[in-house]
Specification:
alpha/beta, eight-stranded mixed beta sheet, elongated
Length: about 475
C-alpha cells in the first residue's frame, strides 16, 4: 500500500443470527473476531437470516501507510465492541422462541432428544420445560424410577422442579425444567406454564387429557405427533389397532391439539404401507415385517422428521399455519383406537383366518402378547382325542404368513411339525396357515420352532381358545 492518505467506507448490515461478507474492489477480510482490513474498496456485511430486518451503519476510517495496521486494529476493535452491543440489543428485541415438550415413554424420549439436538444445531428455539408422568416403581425390584422422558431430560441438563414448592428457591432460572405431575389439570402446573408463556407446546405419547386452560397457554398452539393417519385410529393404541384390523395404509401425522381427542387439523403427514413384506419407499425400511413396538418407534422417528421441518417455518411459530396450511379432519371417517385389554390376547385360529391370526400376533407383540392353550397328542392321533387336561398356556411371539401354495395346512386349530421345512405350521380357518416362528412356555425363555420341537418329539399340538375347546 502506497504512503498516501486513504478513506474507506464500511457498510455494515447486521442481524442477530449471522453475517455474510461481500467485498468490492478486491478487498479482503478475515472474519475471526478480529479483522485485518485492506481498505481499497467497499465492504458489505449482510445478514444471512430471513425475516429479520437488518440495519445499515456507515463507518469511516482514515489511515496512512505507516499507520495502516494500527488503524485496522482500531477499526476491528471498534467493530467487535459495536457488534457485541448490537447482538445483545437484537437478542432482547428478538428473543429465542420457546417450546414446552410433553411425553412419557421411550418413543417420546427419543423424540425429545431429536428436538434438543435440533434446537442446539439451528438455534431457532429452545426447550424451556418438559412435562411428564411422575416417577413410579418399576422392574423386579420395584424401584422408583423416573419416566424415560424425565431420565433423558436429566441427562440433557434439565433440572427437576417441585410444583408443590411455590418458592423453588434452589431452581436455576437459566436452566430448562422437568415438571413431573400425574395430570395436566394440575393447577400448579398450569400456573407455572402460564407464567412461562411458551410459544408452542409439543406432545408425543404424553398419555393425559389436556384441558382448555392448558390449550390456551401456548401462543401458537399445541402440536401432537400421532402414529396413525388421522382421523383413522384416534385414541391410545393406534398402531396396534391398525395392524390388528389389517388397515395397511397407515402412517404418522403432526396435528394441532384441540379439546376433542386427536381431532385437530393436520399440519403434516407421512404414509406407509404396513402390509406383510411391504417397504417404505422413503427410507427402504421393511415396515411390513415390523411388529407393533418396532413400527411404533419407526413412525415416531418419521414424525420427528415432520416436526423438525415444520418448526423451521415462521408461520408455525406465528400461528398462521393453523389457519392457512393445516387440514381439518373428516369426523365422518374417524374410528377409535381404544386401549388393549389383556383378555384380548387369546388367539383363535380355528375361527380366524391366517391373515387375521398373523395380524393379531404383530399387533399385540410386546404387551399383552398373544397366547394359546396347547394340548399335545401323537402325530398319528386324531386331534379330536385331545382334552384340556394338562393343557399348557403358550405365548406365540412371532409368526410368518404363508402362501397357500407353500404347504398343505394342518386342520384349523392344530399346530403340526413340518418335517420337510423343519417348522411348526398352525392351521387356521379357511384352510390357510401361519408358521409359528417364536414361542415361550411358562417360566421359560423364548425359543424358535426347532428348539420347541426338541421338547415335543413326534407330537402335534391341539389348541384351545380362552379355556374352551376349539371347534
Amino acid at each position: 500500500m502506497s504512503a498516501m492518505h486513504m478513506t474507506s467506507v464500511l457498510k455494515v448490515k447486521y442481524s442477530c443470527l449471522g453475517n455474510m461478507i461481500h467485498m468490492g474492489g478486491g478487498s479482503s477480510i478475515v472474519n475471526s473476531g478480529h479483522f485485518r482490513l485492506k481498505l481499497s474498496g467497499r465492504i458489505s456485511i449482510i445478514s444471512r437470516s430471513s425475516g429479520v430486518r437488518g440495519r445499515t451503519h456507515h463507518l469511516s476510517s482514515s489511515a496512512s501507510a505507516s499507520s495502516a495496521s494500527s488503524s485496522a486494529s482500531s477499526s476491528s476493535s471498534s467493530y467487535q465492541s459495536q457488534s457485541q452491543n448490537q447482538t445483545s440489543s437484537q437478542s432482547a428485541r428478538f428473543p429465542k422462541r420457546s417450546l414446552v415438550f410433553l411425553g412419557t415413554p421411550d418413543v417420546s424420549a427419543k423424540l425429545l432428544s431429536r428436538l434438543f439436538e435440533e434446537s442446539r444445531r439451528t438455534n431457532l428455539f429452545e426447550i424451556k420445560a418438559v412435562v411428564t408422568q411422575p416417577p413410579r416403581r418399576k422392574g423386579r425390584g420395584k424401584k422408583v424410577q423416573p419416566s424415560p422422558v424425565a431420565a433423558i431430560a436429566e441427562e440433557l441438563g434439565f433440572q427437576n422442579v417441585d410444583l408443590t414448592d411455590e418458592s423453588n428457591a434452589d431452581a436455576d432460572e437459566n436452566k430448562p425444567v422437568i415438571l413431573a405431575t400425574p395430570s395436566a389439570k394440575d393447577g400448579a402446573l398450569l400456573a407455572f406454564l402460564e407464567k412461562m408463556q411458551p410459544d408452542i407446546c409439543v406432545t408425543a405419547a404424553y398419555g393425559n387429557f389436556l384441558p382448555q386452560r392448558f390449550l390456551d397457554i401456548p401462543k401458537a398452539g399445541t402440536l401432537n405427533v400421532h402414529p396413525s393417519l388421522l382421523p383413522r385410529f384416534r385414541g391410545a393404541a393406534p398402531v396396534q389397532r391398525a395392524l390388528e384390523t389389517q388397515e395397511n395404509d397407515t402412517g404418522v401425522v403432526v396435528a394441532y391439539t384441540v379439546l376433542k381427542m386427536d381431532a385437530g387439523p393436520v399440519l403434516a403427514s407421512h404414509t406407509i404401507d404396513a402390509s406383510p413384506g411391504a417397504v417404505d419407499g422413503a427410507t427402504d425400511a421393511c415396515v411390513g415385517d415390523m411388529q407393533a413396538p418396532e413400527l411404533l418407534e419407526y413412525l415416531f422417528e418419521r414424525g420427528a422428521d415432520l416436526l423438525v421441518e415444520e418448526l423451521k417455518n415462521d408461520n408455525v411459530w406465528s400461528g398462521e399455519a393453523r389457519e392457512t396450511r393445516a387440514t381439518a379432519q373428516d369426523d365422518a371417517a374417524a374410528c377409535a383406537a381404544p386401549m388393549i385389554d389383556k383378555e384380548e390376547s387369546w388367539l383363535d385360529p380355528a375361527r380366524n383366518s391366517a391373515e387375521e391370526t398373523h395380524a393379531k400376533v404383530r399387533a399385540f407383540a410386546g404387551w399383552p402378547g398373544t397366547k394359546v392353550l396347547m394340548s399335545f397328542v401323537g402325530d398319528a392321533d386324531d386331534p379330536s382325542s385331545a382334552t384340556m387336561d394338562g393343557a399348557v398356556e403358550v405365548k406365540v411371539l412371532a409368526t410368518r404368513l404363508l402362501n397357500s401354495s407353500e404347504v398343505t395346512a394342518p386342520p384349523p386349530g392344530v399346530m403340526a411339525w413340518q418335517t420337510s421345512c423343519k417348522a411348526w405350521y398352525l392351521g387356521c380357518h379357511g384352510g390357510g396357515a401361519v408358521e409359528v416362528v417364536t414361542l415361550q412356555l411358562p417360566a421359560k425363555k423364548p425359543v424358535d420352532g426347532k428348539a420347541f420341537r426338541n421338547g415335543f418329539q413326534n407330537q402335534k399340538a391341539v389348541l384351545f381358545f380362552g379355556g374352551t375347546a376349539e371347534s
